Amino acid sequence: MAMEAESSLEWLSPGDLDHLKVSPDGRCWWCRERASTTGEHKYKQTDLARLMGDDSLIWAGDGGTREIRGKSGIKRDRYGVVKFPKSMCDTCNNARSQSFDRAYTTFSTYLDSTWVRIQPGVSFEEIYGDPWQKDTLDLARYYGKHFGCRMVRSGLPVPDSLRAFLDGDDDMPDAHTALVTTDSVHRVAGKGLTLSSDFVWTNRERTEFRGCVMAAYVGSVGVRYQWWAERQRPEGWDSQFFHFPTPVINCFEDEQALMEGRTRRPGWFSRFSQWLNRPSSHGNAEQG
């Protein structure tokens, strides 16, 4: 975790911010009406089954590893590494978000079968066809549900804008989302599923959370989410990836660069492709 200091970042252990964490109240974080009886999958079952094939999977995190054997191992989640803690009701986690799950499955399958990382952007028109605008919004809402569950797990307050986005709003005024690729993730887990660390910052007095950054990857390409407690995105962060037919893939060297929003220049092949496929009627979205 990180917090703002006078002129740089001061790194803290997670326990240093325990006094700020929001404790679960037993209600679904999305609808705030029904009991939280289900845990969302950190990694989609279809992704895990595809990676597993007829063998097994290795989960790595927190300095250790766990072996997940067979399809029943995914469902049983013996080690508690596949699912988030229970924080949603069955209605929200399943019935209300079915279209989100379908949009994500289509996107994930495309990333698994297409050499995307070196491209200048991702064509949602190619992935979804004519209904790309609706399906891309549903894709963003899938990630919104994922990041909401991560915020609950980390003890962060879930922004009302995120709930409103899942309910049908077409933007989040205090959050930014972008397509990303991170070199350090690509080197270690180029064909796997990866979750970034959950980065947070506070005010100088450490009396309240002021924002967070987190990302989730399929292979080398993922979605980055940043939230500001000020209830307004800073100037220059107004382009959401889901508003564009071909948003760019933002390149980062490592997780610290991802957290700070410090992009690197794309590789030569990506720059050449971007020039060769420069848009006519549709522009690529420059993400922060």
Give Rg in angstroms.
Answer: 19 Å
The end-to-end distance, rounded to whole angstroms, is 21 Å
Instruction: Return the string of H and E elements.
Output: EEHEEHHHHHHEHEEEEEHH
Number of strands: 10
Give the structural class: alpha+beta
Characterization of the model:
The protein has 288 residues and is an alpha+beta fold. It has a domain at 2-10 and 98-276. It has helices spanning 45-52, 70-76, 90-95, 98-113, 124-128, 132-154, 160-167, 183-189, 255-260, 268-276; strands at residues 2-4, 9-11, 56-61, 64-69, 175-182, 193-195, 199-202, 209-218, 221-228, 249-252. The strands form three sheets. Strands 5, 6, 7, 8, 9 and 10 form a six-stranded mixed β-sheet that branches. A two-stranded antiparallel sheet has the order 1-2. The protein has a two-stranded antiparallel ribbon with strand order 3-4. The longest helix has 23 residues, at 132-154. It is globular and about 45 Å long.
